[in-house]
Amino acid sequence: MHVFYQAAEANRWVRQQTALGITVGLVPTMGALHEGHFSLVDTSRGTCQKTIATIFVNPTQFAPHEDLSRYPRTLESDLEGLRRHHADAVFIPETEDIYPRGFSTYVDPPEVSLPWEGDCRPGHFRGVCTVVLKLFHLLPSTHAFFGQKDFQQAATIIAMVRDLGVNIEIVVCPILRDPDRLAMSSRNRYLTPQERNRALAIPLALEQVQLAVAKGISDASQLEAIMKQILSEGPVDQIEYAAIVDPYALTRVTRIDHPAVAIIAARVGQTRLIDNDRIAPQDG
Ligand code: PAF
Fold first, then answer.
1. Residue 63: what pLDDT?
2. For ligand 1, atom 8, which residue shows the shortest CA distance?
3. Is 28 in the pocket of ligand 1 (CB under 6 A)?
4. What is the reported pLDDT for 30?
5. pLDDT at residue number 284
6. Is 85 among the residues known to form the active site?
7. Over the Cα atoms of the chain, what is R_g?
8. Which of 56, 137, 140, 202 fits a 20 to 30 Å CA distance from 178?
9. Active-site residue among 34, 37, 85, 143?
């Protein structure tokens, strides 16, 4: 596996591949890699001829009240995992590579980024869009892979690519869950066993929504009430949102008469967790 620390070297490697007509899959990450990330690498390898991951804890996507220094950094095991999953290359930029001295140009993120995470994490998607677009330029790959767990992030990147005419195919990969059903996340490592137990209210709430829909409940406010009750019983410490939304616009829906998505953000102890599940309307 090539390990690039210099943007120019990583850029050259990607351009060498694409010049030969080789498809290149980009897997952007902030490190602290887990099986969810590795499934993106595996999907990229199944889709593209070469795969390059990036590891960069992007300072601009942390809202003012969020602690960038607390974000886990596990470079050695990240590299070992990427090798195990046969990534062809990894790019580990320095902050100055992404944000050179005097940097002041940011992406104004699309409308779909405004509610939910946009409300709870001011500036977050401005930072995400800026770094992702920059990575798309530095590593001009044919495909890029993102996880469905960050549902609004994926919708935001798809909208940005459409709006700005970026020539890259975005692939959204399914959520991976641990055996206790908690969605895999770099932040799960912060949970104490007792907190983790309480956090299981999140997947449980999503499962109960599916059951309710299967039983014929299609009123979104009823489904939201079910999620909120289960989360309160968990109990999680704070429900930031639990909503049924349109999968493209991320606006609240009133009924499940089209495909929708249930989205949750909740705090357990000091840890903020997000999860979601797609909901298909029932026939008839
Ligand atoms: O999902 C993430 O890990 C980050 O938001 C991303 C896409 C790597 C941008 O920093």
1. 86
2. 29
3. yes
4. 98
5. 61
6. no
7. 19
8. 56
9. 37
Span from the CA of 29 to the centroid of ligand 1 (angstroms): 5
Select from 30, 66, 152, 158 the residue to mutate for testing ligand 1; criterion: most ligand atoms less than 8 Å from CB: 30
In the block, tokens 């850029």 appear at 11
Give the C-alpha distances (Å, rounded to integers) separating 154 from 11, 174, 248, 258: 24, 11, 10, 20
Going from the Cα of 37 to the center of ligand 1, the distance in angstroms, rounded, reads: 11
Predicted pLDDT of residue 283: 77
H-helix or E-strand containing 131?
helix 124-138
Output the six-digit token pair for 260.
């929708």
Q: Which of 135, 104, 154, 125 is nearest to 61 (CA)?
A: 125
Q: What is the pLDDT of residue 64?
A: 84
Pocket flag, ligand 1, residue 61 (CB < 6 Å): yes
- What does the H/E/C string look like for 13-72? HHHHHHHCCCCEEEEEECCCCCHHHHHHHHHHHHHCCEEEEEECCCHHHCCCCCCHHHCC
What was the pLDDT predicted at 119? 97
Residue written as token pair 């997947």? 203
